[in-house]
């Protein structure tokens, strides 16, 4: 009897090992197929970083990670740069997908390649030509950080500081940063507040407000990166994009706007009807050549200035995840990930490949302080800056 039990148990163990080996082989084969087809979302179990392991210190100030959630989506936000670190939403089949590529540690965001992954940027989002402008008859020179220009506030911009943060409830986070007079070369002490919240209609909502004690250029925006097929899933080339804009800003080699916005009609910049990013991104076009693809400002069609209206829609070709961008801002910078080198490793151990993520940065026009005819970006004492932007998520089959 004992011998029979031993033989039965041994057979069961052998069978279990064989089954586990077969399952591993099947998974390995499935993973190989996924890699070959570019569908690597099947290989990722999406989850947000652990706040305990993400914590760190920047310039002597403790950095932390906060989690917001509603019934459908979750987002991880770091107080270092008020940045989006991960964003979990369900795809068309209900599978949880992380649509915000990012990194697992604060230290990774301190590196040059990580600086603009997901933060709120300012004091002036986008570029100021040669880092120079004149305000009230006085010339100012800013710190440079992008081909002889000042980009996103320069090296000491909002992205490079730990914000004071209060988690109001499971769905709301209040963040504040005080930019002191002279920081990066900008005049005035500016206090910026950004409230992140998750709405009942599955939007990640950002509400900005700011005040200053001296007149200063001011144009903050979220530099969130997205891949609607999921981080690590390959390029965003086959995402469908619609941008509600009849005009865009033509630029020079340094991506500085030249004159007044021009019509998108008959150009690769016409996204008034849903079009894949790949459809025209590699056409021979001087503007595409300057940006290495899409990295331009679109002037949004606005029935009334300052209203919250739809700016853009993007759909993940594999996931069916749809992201609608709504904003009170007059313009939008669409950046197609043209400068990713594939050397940055994301949260799931996979490289963030060339054109592996996109950004939809709601904003005023780039270099506005040097263009009197562009919408005003000068914040003055006694005024309160306000802006609202939403990234609203749903699915299509």
From TrEMBL:
One of its GO terms (cellular component) is cytoplasm. InterPro entries: Aldose_1-epimerase (IPR015443), Aldose_1/G6P_1-epimerase (IPR008183), Gal_mutarotase_sf_dom (IPR011013), Galactose_mutarotase-like (IPR047215), GH-type_carb-bd (IPR014718). It is an enzyme of class 5 (isomerase). GO terms for molecular function: aldose 1-epimerase activity; carbohydrate binding. It comes from Spirosoma endbachense. Its cofactor is Ca(2+). The lineage of its organism: Bacteria, Pseudomonadati, Bacteroidota, Cytophagia, Cytophagales. The active site is at residues 223, 361. Its EC number is 5.1.3.3. PANTHER family: ALDOSE-1-EPIMERASE, GALACTOSE MUTAROTASE. NCBIfam families: PRK11055.1 (NF008277). This is Aldose 1-epimerase. It catalyses: alpha-D-glucose = beta-D-glucose. Keywords: Calcium, Carbohydrate metabolism, Isomerase.
């Amino acid at each position: 009897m004992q011998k029979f039990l031993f033989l039965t148990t041994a057979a069961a163990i052998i069978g279990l090992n064989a089954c586990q080996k077969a399952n591993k082989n099947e998974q390995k084969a499935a993973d190989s197929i996924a890699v070959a087809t570019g569908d690597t979302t099947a290989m990722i179990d999406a989850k947000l970083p652990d706040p305990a392991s993400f914590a760190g210190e920047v310039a002597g100030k403790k950095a932390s990670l906060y989690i917001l959630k509603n019934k459908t989506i979750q987002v991880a936000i770091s107080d270092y740069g008020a940045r989006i670190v991960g964003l979990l939403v369900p795809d068309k089949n209900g599978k949880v997908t992380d649509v915000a590529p990012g990194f697992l540690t604060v230290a990774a965001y301190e590196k040059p390649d990580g600086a603009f992954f997901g933060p709120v940027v300012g004091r002036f989002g986008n570029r100021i030509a040669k880092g120079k402008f004149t305000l009230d008859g006085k010339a100012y020179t800013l710190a440079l950080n992008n081909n002889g220009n000042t980009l996103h506030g320069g090296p000491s911009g909002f992205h490079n500081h730990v914000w004071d943060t209060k988690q109001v409830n499971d769905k709301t986070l209040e963040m504040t940063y005080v930019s002191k007079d002279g920081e990066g070369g900008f005049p005035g002490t500016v206090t910026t507040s950004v409230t992140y919240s998750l709405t009942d209609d599955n939007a990640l909502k950002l509400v900005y407000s700011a005040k200053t004690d001296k007149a200063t250029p001011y144009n903050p925006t979220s530099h969130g990166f997205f891949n609607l097929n999921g981080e690590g899933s390959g390029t965003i080339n086959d995402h469908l994009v619609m941008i509600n804009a009849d005009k865009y800003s033509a630029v020079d080699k340094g991506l500085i706007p030249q004159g007044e916005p021009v019509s998108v009609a008959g150009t690769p910049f016409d996204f008034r009807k849903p079009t894949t990013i790949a459809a025209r991104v590699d056409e021979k076009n001087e503007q595409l050549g300057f940006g290495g693809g899409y990295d331009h400002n679109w002037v949004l069609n606005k029935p009334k200035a300052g209203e919250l209206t739809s700016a853009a829609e993007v759909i993940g070709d594999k996931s069916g995840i749809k992201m609608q961008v709504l904003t009170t801002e007059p313009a939008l910078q669409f950046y197609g990930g043209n400068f990713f080198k594939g050397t940055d490793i994301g949260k799931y151990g996979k490289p963030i490949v060339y054109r592996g993520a996109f950004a939809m940065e709601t904003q005023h026009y780039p270099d506005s302080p040097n263009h009197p005819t562009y919408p005003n970006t000068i914040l003055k004492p006694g005024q309160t800056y306000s802006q609202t932007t939403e990234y609203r998520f749903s699915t299509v089959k």
